[in-house]
Amino acid sequence: MSAATSEAHAPVGGGVETPSGKWRDGENFPVGSWLIRRNLRPHVHAFYRFARNADDIADNPLLQPADKIRRLDRMAAVLDGAPGDDAPAAAAMRQSLLATGTTDRHCHDVLRAFRQDAEQRRYRDWDELMDYCRYSAAPVGRQLLDLHGESSATWPASDALCAALQVLNHLQDCGDDYRGLDRVYLPLADLAAAGIGVEALASGGASPALREVLDLLLDRTAPLVAMARGLAPRVAAAGLRRECAVIVELAARLLGRLRRDDPLAMRVRLGKSDFLAAFVNGVVRGARG
Predict the structure, then answer these.
(1) pLDDT the model gives residue 69
(2) Last residue of a domain, one of 119, 138, 163
(3) Structurally, how many domains does the chain consist of?
(4) Which of 54, 88, 119 is the endpoint of a domain?
(5) Per residue in 179-222, pLDDT tens?
(6) Is residue 29 part of a domain?
């Protein structure tokens, strides 16, 4: 969940959703790419829009926490069948659920995470951050697996991948999140152990102490990426298996870039060569499922 401009987040049209227009811009990982079965892509995109619009509510600096929660509750009500066109992404998501017969559990789980974002700005330790990822990140992978009719036995590896992606995104955006939203996902216990506070994130570059914390979090994320490598072999759907393998490769490459580069001094992002190499390696790995 990263900060954006106030103008982009301004409420529009009297609706409860406040879409920023980010959609796929700036995303590190493919969302419902052509590797996914054609008939399922609209449903993948419906879930992504639903989660993206809910995320934008939670990230909107113009809204008070109580208003954010009211809007997220309204999205939940429309998802559950309440009439109204003030939450179009939620209405579209309900239609998708009805069409596919998938559970609404994962949608409600991400809404829970965004309600948490509306009120909670600090995380005590790694365990508390992982509990947040259980609701903010894991449902995305689970929804994709459910759409393909995959076994819940794939969930542990998927959860590991989604948690890794979430933490990597937090590290990419740690400066912007602090400066724009006063939100810090870096565990306070780790900052304190390094002798620094959240104010270290206001700098234009990471201090040696903050770099130590970033590296510690990357050390904890690396085993999640390693566990995620077990996902693709467990996925039956060929296209999804390849997409999972590609995303794992991208996560590993982003982790490496965050080890080398300073997210406070620059936007750490993957380059075209990273995407190409991850695609080739991922497709090859995914073909072995």
Answers:
(1) 97
(2) 119
(3) 2
(4) 119
(5) 999 999 999 999 999 999 999 999 999 999 999 999 999 999 99
(6) no
- Domain range enclosing 134: 121-289
Q: Are residues 105 and 162 in the same domain?
A: no
**Pair 50, 147 in one domain:** no
Please return the burial class of 178, using the count of CB atoms within 10 Å of its CB with bins 0-12, 13-18 and 19+. buried
- Residue whose structure tokens are 């570059």: 205
Residue 117 region by backbone torsions, left for phi larger than 0, else alpha for psi between -120 and 50, else beta: alpha
Distance CA 69, CA 267 (A): 30
Please give the single-letter amino acid code of residue 22: K
Phi first, then psi, for residue 136 (nearest 5°) are: -85, -30
If asked whether residues 131 and 145 sit together in one domain, one would say: yes
- Name the residue type at position 52: R
Asked if 117 contacts 1 with a C-beta cutoff of 8 angstroms, the reply is yes
Q: Give residue-wise pLDDT tens across range 107-137.
A: 999 999 999 999 999 999 999 999 999 999 9
